[in-house]
């Protein structure tokens, strides 16, 4: 049976958009065990405090919480174990050279299923200052007020 090519978003890390200025995004595969993919398909995932760290010439996803599979046995997985990211060599080299610059980091932005396989979108990011966050909040509030005014006008 062939899997469809549709994308089902499992987890969207909204906090990453708020805390970081996302510069460039990459799609990465994950090295998972059988019970991990079952938990992901059941939406038992959190990327809230997770981050990506280089180890040699590889990238690893750390602190991503994939809950233990409820129907698993004693071979169930550790919820926050490090997971290797699968990227093309040129993408890894590009990320590693960018990380050498001061102030850049790699954060996971969303986890999704694509063609039956778990993928994580990671972004090269620069941390926002408090002033930038306040500007984003003010801009969002202004947009909401404009939308509200337009809805009231055209009722």
Verbal overview:
- The protein is an alpha+beta fold and 155 residues long.
- It has one domain: Small Protein B, Chain: A.
- It is built from four helices and nine strands; from the N terminus they run βαβαβββββαββα.
- A hairpin with a 2-residue loop joins strand 4 and strand 5.
- The protein is globular.
- The N and C termini lie far apart (50 Å).
Condensed summary:
Helix content is 32%, strand content 37%.
Question: Architecture, CATH level 2?
Answer: Beta Barrel
In round numbers, the mean pLDDT is 86
Q: How is the main sheet built?
A: 7 strands, antiparallel
Share of β-strand residues: 35-45%
In CATH, what is the class?
Mainly Beta
Structural domain count: 1
Structural class: alpha+beta
Quote the distance from N terminus to C terminus. Answer: 50 Å
Fold topology:
Layout (H helix, E strand, L loop, with lengths): L6 E6 L1 H6 E11 L3 H8 L3 E2 L4 E5 L2 E5 L2 E2 L16 E4 L2 H11 L4 E11 L2 E11 L2 H24 L2
Antiparallel strand pairs: 1-8, 2-7, 2-9, 3-6, 4-5, 5-7, 8-9
Keywords:
7-stranded antiparallel beta sheet, Small Protein B, Chain: A, 155 residues, alpha+beta
